[in-house]
Each structure stands twice: as structure tokens, then as C-alpha cells.
Design a protein that fits this description.
374 residues, alpha/beta, seven-stranded mixed sheet, 18 strands, elongated, binds pyridoxal-5'-phosphate
Length: 374
């Protein structure tokens, strides 16, 4: 149960909890996704600090694995990885905000043009300062970002605005890809294919992680996965072909043998009806061990499952260690680990692996192992 000593450490020196990020697994997942296509081409989405795992380490690893195109959500997230990825194409998904044009130029970043106003803004900027590449996103059923159908019609009636700059990618985003049977998947695929015919021929991308697994019709010229790179299951009902990237271990701070009847934690939410061995471990909701895991989560002491008892508090979580009489103060338990991955924890928390990853706190010692090269 002791953490091994290899790897690169960051984060607080005396942290009682350890987040291990397996970069080789990220690279393997990247190669696995590429291998599912005929074209072998995939970008990587590394928004929200690389899904919480550290954008710089993740970007470096994916570059070594062969990835050349990256997307973030925010402009600042893209700037943050520019030094790490001097040669890469880096796009910003959230769209071009007026006033940011020069920043895109300065860092050689690609805006994603999400409405007609943004297309015109970029065209005007490029006529003034010289042409710079951008991507175009049109909406096919999300009603979120991207040119809505009326704006697509207006654009396609007069494509001359696109003469002002090189169009690098055309994209759309799937709403229901993790539900393969959902009718919207095919509808969006058809709307996307139809939209592409009206636009200049440039590389097209539609598939997020789950979209990759819908089949080759959804692959177009390049994939655009995020969560699958980090071990997120593409489909909750099927075996997960992706490798786990994250292991989260927290120290046992104290063990109490309690006699029934006795309650555990805030709100006296859990009541022991027989004698129990309660271990308090050093992670709570402030560390992204979500409060919704109260009385429903499971941690592992080696192979032994220990249920979370009572409410998860800010810095601490109590688990029933009655089945682990050998567990000692100072040893580590797995909150996320080989027995219990991000998908299993998400299920217990009533959420999705994306939220588990992006909630991971800043108080862990972080250890990066492996790398992008095979
Ligand atoms: C987040 C995002 C992705 C990646 O989605 P995953 O489900 O994590 O693979 C792809 N495209 C867009 C537009 C996104 O916002």
C-alpha cells in the first residue's frame, strides 16, 4: 500500500494524499483511438487543465505520442500550453471574443468561429493584419455553440468572407454520443455531412470520445477526443477498452474502534449498529472527493473494499475498515485505483467521469509516471 518512488512529483511537499498520473496510459489511449480509424488522425482536447491532470504534462505526453492538433476551451488555457507545444496547432473551442484577435495572432492560436459575427470579425482582422488560420464550428443539434442553421445558410449563400483567411478545420459536436442508440447521433452525422458539402473542402471533425465508438461514419478526417484519453469509458454499458490513467491514494490518519450504537461524522448520518473499525482518510470534498459519495462511495485497501460511512467532509472521509483489520494509520487507501476507476467512482457519486477528473483538487502530491513515447 506504499506508493512507489519513481516519477516526477509536483504539488505540496507534505501532502497526505498522492495522485499518480500514468502518462504512458494516456499515450496508449491516444494510439488506441487513432487505431480505430482508417485515417489514424486524432486531435486531443486538453481543456480545463487537461481534464484536471495538468495541461502541460498531458500536452507534452500527447505530442510525444504523435498528436499535432490540440484544443482548449479558453484562450488562457491555449496560451498556457504554447511554450510546451511550439509546433502544434492549438485551437480554442469557446469562440472568438472581440478584443482578443491580436492575442490569437501573437500566440499563433486558432480561434473556433462559432457564429457569423465571429467569422466576420476574424475576416476583418485578417484583412487588416494578414491571414491566420481558424476553424469553423456549425451546430448540428446541440443548440450550444456553433453557427445555427440560419447562420449557416447566410454564410453558404456568400462564402466570400472565407477568402480572408485559411479555414483549417470544420467541426460540429455530438450531443448523445455516449448513447449509441440515440437517433440524434445519425441525424447529426447526416447534417454534418450535408453542411460540409456547402463549405470549402477542409479537414472535418465530428467525433468526441464516445463519438469515435459510434463507427467510421462519424470519424470524418480527424477525431477530437478528450475524456477517453484519460480513461473515461465511452459507453457506460460496455466494457471500457481504455487504460486507466489516474490513481488517487490517501493516507489513513486515524483508526477508531467504535462500539454500537455510535454515529460517524457530520449530521450523525451513519449509525453503527454493531462494533466497527472506522478509518479516517485524508481527502474530502475540497479535494474533489465529492460530497455525493457520502454513504455511497467505496475505497480500497489493497483488494479489500471499504465503504464510505457518513458524510464526506471537507478534508476527511470516514470508511468502514472492519474488513481490513491489518490496515494501519499512515498507510494509503485507493480512492481511485486499479480496483475502482474514475468510471466506477462517478457512478457511485451520481455523476460522470469528466466531473471526477476536473474536480480533482490541488492539495495532492502529484506523481507523473511514464511518458508519451512507446
Ligand atoms: C469537450 C469537447 C470535446 C471532447 O469531448 P469528450 O467527450 O471529452 O471526448 C470535443 N469537442 C468539443 C467541442 C468539446 O467541447
Amino acid at each position: 500500500m506504499k506508493a512507489s518512488d519513481s516519477g516526477i512529483y509536483t504539488g505540496p511537499t507534505h501532502a497526505p494524499s498522492l495522485l499518480t498520473i500514468d502518462l504512458s496510459a494516456i499515450a496508449d489511449n491516444y494510439r488506441l483511438l487513432c487505431g480505430l480509424t482508417d485515417h489514424g488522425q486524432s486531435a486531443a482536447v486538453i481543456k480545463a487543465n487537461g481534464y484536471g491532470l495538468g495541461a502541460i504534462a498531458v500536452a507534452q505526453c500527447l505530442w510525444e505520442a504523435g498528436c499535432r492538433i490540440f484544443f482548449t476551451a479558453h484562450l488562457d488555457e491555449a496560451i498556457a500550453v504554447r511554450d510546451t507545444l511550439p509546433e502544434a496547432g492549438i485551437g480554442v473551442l469557446n469562440g472568438l471574443m472581440a478584443g482578443d484577435e491580436d492575442v490569437y495572432g501573437a500566440y499563433r492560436l486558432m480561434p473556433t468561429l462559432n457564429d457569423l459575427g465571429q467569422v466576420r470579425l476574424w475576416a476583418a482582422h485578417c484583412r487588416d493584419k494578414g491571414p491566420l488560420p481558424a476553424s469553423l464550428h456549425f451546430d448540428t443539434g446541440m443548440s450550444r455553440l456553433g453557427l445555427p442553421p440560419v447562420e449557416m445558410d447566410l454564410l453558404c449563400d456568400d462564402l466570400s468572407v472565407l477568402d480572408a483567411f485559411p479555414l483549417r478545420f470544420v467541426m460540429s459536436h455530438l450531443a448523445c454520443a455516449e448513447t449509441p442508440g440515440h437517433a440524434l447521433n445519425r441525424e447529426q452525422q447526416q447534417r454534418f455531412a450535408a453542411g460540409l458539402k456547402r463549405l470549402p473542402e477542409v479537414p472535418a471533425m465530428l467525433a468526441n470520445s464516445s463519438g469515435v465508438f459510434l463507427g467510421k461514419d462519424w470519424h470524418f478526417d480527424m477525431l477530437r477526443p478528450g475524456v477517453a484519453l484519460f480513461g473515461g469509458a465511452p459507453n457506460a454499458d460496455k466494457p471500457n477498452p481504455l487504460k486507466q490513467v489516474v490513481r488517487l491514494q490517501a493516507k489513513i490518519l486515524q483508526i477508531q474502534e467504535i462500539d454500537a450504537p455510535q454515529t460517524v461524522g457530520y449530521g450523525a448520518f451513519f449509525k453503527a449498529t454493531e462494533p466497527r473499525r472506522i478509518a479516517t482518510v485524508a481527502a474530502g470534498y475540497a479535494d474533489g472527493y465529492l460530497r455525493s459519495l457520502s454513504d455511497s462511495g467505496t475505497v480500497y485497501y489493497g483488494d479489500v473494499a471499504l465503504p464510505v460511512v457518513g458524510r464526506v467532509s471537507m478534508d476527511l472521509t470516514a470508511v468502514d475498515a472492519t474488513d481490513a483489520p491489518m490496515a494501519q494509520v499512515g498507510e494509503m487507501v485507493d480512492l481511485i485505483g486499479p480496483k475502482h476507476d474514475i468510471n466506477a467512482v462517478a457512478k457511485e457519486a451520481g455523476t460522470i467521469p469528466y466531473e471526477i477528473l476536473t474536480s480533482l483538487g490541488a492539495r495532492y502530491k502529484r506523481r507523473y509516471i511514464g511518458g508519451g513515447r512507446p
